[in-house]
Specification:
- The structure holds two protein chains of two kinds.
- Chain A is mostly helical.
- Chain A has one domain (10-170): Ferritin, core subunit, four-helix bundle (Ferritin, Up-down Bundle).
- Chain A has helices spanning 4-8, 13-42, 46-72, 92-120, 123-128, 130-153, 159-166.
- Chain B has one domain (2-95).
- In chain B, 28% of the residues lie in helices and 29% in strands.
- Chain B contains two helices and six strands; from the N terminus they run ββββαββα.
- Chain B has helices at 34-45, 78-95, and strands at residues 2-6, 11-15, 20-24, 29-32, 62-67, 72-77.
- The radius of gyration of chain B is 14 Å and the shape is globular.
- The chains are: A mainly alpha, B alpha+beta.
- Chain A binds chain B through residues 1-9, 12-14, 17-18, 21, 74-76, 78, 120, and chain B through 2, 4, 14, 16, 19-21, 34-35, 38-39, 41-42, 45, 92, 95-99, 102, 104-105.
Chain lengths: 172, 106
């Protein structure tokens, strides 16, 4: 019997399923950051809103990178359904703490796919994810730095306005 | 045609000559390209069999499966869906692009 399936698909189907889940996760992150941008706009944190608009685009970029990879290896990329986006935040600190939680969840998910790909001997998927592993280091570090800055600045008095102004330092 | 896997209700074939796959649904033999096979797999694995038992979402226990660019439509009951899930899971394992005995994620 010819190996027609392997001729058509360059990665393991379980890795493909996990990458489709990751596509959904990146899309959810993109939608969440857009909701955060909306909250920032409505609460007077206009520089933070710009930051989250940029984050939205970045997460969508990640999603498309995985989507196109699945196309390249002959897989079946799935356009994700996104729901249950939270628009309510208690404060600007809550917004950034939630962002860090999101980024940590994304990092864990990518690490899990790397571990699974390694166990399957799927070197193509493992190497593809190298970029994402390093990207997550950068993403988490950015949000940690912002939370450190918020802690140093404090939220009393004009603190919140100063925090919003300083977010400009993290907009590329 | 070579039999890849035969379940209780269905048989999964590969044709080396035509470089495609076939699923014999009993009343109909359906040819599938590999892309169509992947798309069908996606539809099958995302069917929530739990909805047939534990919720009011699917009390009748029937699923409408449309595939191959809407060329085919099947109405399948719970037993047939479970059998089709097994056919896909084991079949892909036999093809060597999936590991055996994995719980397929939805």
């Amino acid at each position: 019997m010819k190996d027609i399936a392997r001729q058509r698909l360059g990665i393991n189907v379980e890795a493909m399923d996990l990458l489709n889940s990751q596509i959904k996760m990146e899309a959810h992150a993109s939608a969440t950051y857009l909701a955060m941008a909306s909250w920032c706009e409505q609460n007077g944190f206009f520089t933070s809103a710009k930051f989250f608009y940029a984050q939205t685009e970045e997460e969508r970029g990640h999603m498309m990178k995985i989507f196109k990879f699945l196309v390249d290896v002959g897989g079946n990329p799935i356009s994700p359904e996104i729901g249950n986006i939270n628009h309510d935040y208690a404060s600007i600190v809550d917004v950034f703490e939630t962002t860090l939680d999101h980024e940590i969840a994304v990092t864990k998910s990518i690490h899990n796919i790397v571990i699974k790909a390694r166990s399957l001997g799927d070197i193509t998927t493992e190497r593809f994810l190298d970029w994402f592993v390093l990207e997550q280091v950068e993403e988490e570090n950015t949000i940690r730095d912002i939370l450190d800055m918020i802690e140093v600045t404090g939220t009393e008095g004009v603190g919140q306005q100063m925090i919003d102004n300083q977010i400009n330092n993290w907009i590329d | 045609m070579t039999v890849v896997y035969k379940s209780k209700f269905y048989t999964f074939y590969q044709s080396d000559q035509k470089k495609c796959f076939y699923i014999d649904f009993g009343q109909k033999l359906v040819p599938l390209s590999f892309c169509q096979l992947l798309a069908l797999r996606q539809k099958i694995i995302t069917i929530s069999i739990e909805n047939h038992f534990y919720t009011e979402h699917n009390q009748h226990g029937l699923e409408i499966l449309v595939f191959c660019n809407k060329e085919h439509l099947f109405v399948l009951n719970t037993f047939e869906i479970l059998d089709l899930k097994e056919l896909v899971e084991v079949g892909f394992s036999v093809l060597g692009i999936s590991s055996p005995n994995t719980v397929i994620a939805s």
